[in-house]
Specification:
By secondary structure, this protein is of the alpha/beta class. The protein contains 15 helices and 16 strands. About 50% of the residues are buried. The structure holds zinc ion.
């Protein structure tokens, strides 16, 4: 008799939207949902130490199978005792399947029903990802949640290609289930594909649900399609997923998309956005995005966000952080990264409280009235 390593508890639902309040029990702690997961591509959330992630309140981070397989190698990570021990992170970890990277980053890929042959973006060496190969890698990395190997089609894509791709992804999902060697320690999630076609999404979801995964991801969105189309596709997908299983929207995490995703019944999100824009000198604040590199902040001694209680905002001024970033000092991007992750983590906390208190739609409106619409670009300074 096997015990499920990850269990989802549905705590409550919004009466006016599809928003859900839940709790995910994992071998490395309890995760309150909806949750935003910071991305730690190379077994590190860039510039942030594990104890700082803990301080920020991130219960789970994402790591990338493709990158860790190429460097330092999953055999090395396994020899170190698995990803948690290797990177000294005691919270939960989710590894993606590498599908997105081999279809978008890798060179000279050759796709067949068996898998994908590609060349490493680092040294050009040849590799082959099949459902079985990816499961072996993810089993060695040892994350709490692992993703099935899927084909991630670009946008736009022909309908006939998408149909074939959905069939392939479903066949691969079944092969992943059979090849998964650590089902008592790692939960394998299936991924719904289907481009922006509601009927393909519905068929893909129904077929995956037949396979009975402990959780379901929605992949292939936020790949260049207009936002309203992404929201419609999402709304056409989540009703076909079981209510008692977690739903994860992959690669999505701008503040507007978090709210729109939650509203359509998503529980988990990941995105490089808060950490990537931080390294470019942009911070998220309660009043929208702020480009701290701009000259306007040269003599601004206020904190990044006067409504933020993070260590960075309690300690440093915009002028100092701007100076660090202009001077190319690494502390600068550490501070902006820490603040951005803190900001999004607090937004998710408030979203959860709002769902519990039956005022999610009101909180969404309040947030955007202050943050600005269209991802804060209307409030973006200079
Ligand atoms: Zn802050």
């Amino acid at each position: 008799m096997s015990t499920a390593p990850v269990r989802f508890e549905l705590l409550g639902r919004c009466a006016r939207t599809m928003a859900r309040r839940g709790r995910l029990h994992t071998p490395h702690g309890v995760i309150e949902t909806p949750v935003f997961m910071p991305v730690g591509t190379q077994a590190t959330v860039k510039t942030v130490a594990p104890h700082e992630l803990q301080e920020i309140g991130a219960p789970i981070i994402l790591a990338n199978t493709y990158h860790l397989h190429l460097r330092p190698g999953d055999d090395l990570v396994a020899a170190a005792g698995g990803l948690h021990r290797f990177m000294q992170w005691n919270g939960a970890i989710l590894t993606d399947s590498g599908g997105f990277q081999v279809f978008s980053l890798a060179e000279m890929r050759k796709i067949s029903d068996d898998g994908v042959e590609f060349r490493s973006h680092i040294d050009g060496s040849r590799h082959f990802f099949s459902p079985e190969a990816v499961m072996a890698i993810e089993n060695r990395l040892g994350a709490d949640i692992i993703m099935a190997f899927d084909e991630c089609p670009p946008y736009p894509a022909d309908r006939s290609y998408l149909e074939q791709s959905v069939r392939r992804t479903l066949a691969w999902a079944e092969r992943c289930q059979r090849a998964h060697r650590r089902p008592d320690e790692q939960a394998l999630f299936g991924i719904v594909q289907g481009g922006v076609h509601a009927d393909l999404r519905r068929e893909a979801a129904a077929a995956l649900v037949e396979l009975d995964f402990p959780g379901y991801a929605i992949g292939g969105l936020s790949v260049g399609e207009p936002k309203p189309l992404m929201y419609d596709t999402l709304a056409a997908t989540t009703p076909h997923l079981p209510v008692d299983k977690p739903r994860y929207l992959m690669g999505v995490g701008s503040p507007d998309d978090l709210f729109e995703g939650v509203e359509r019944g998503v529980d988990m999100f990941d995105c490089v956005l808060p950490t990537r824009i931080a390294r470019n000198g942009t911070v998220l604040t309660s009043r929208g995005k702020l480009v701290i590199r701009n000259a306007a902040y040269a003599r601004d001694f206020a904190p990044l966000d006067s409504d933020c209680s993070c260590w960075v905002c309690r300690t440093f001024s915009r002028a100092y952080i701007r100076h660090l970033i202009k001077a190319g000092e690494v502390l600068g991007i550490r501070l902006t990264t820490y603040h951005n992750l803190w900001f999004l983590t607090r937004v998710m906390e408030r979203i959860r409280a709002a769902i519990e208190e039956g005022r999610f739609p009101e909180y969404k409106r309040e947030f955007f009235e202050s943050f600005g619409y269209n991802d804060g670009t209307m409030r973006e300074d200079g």
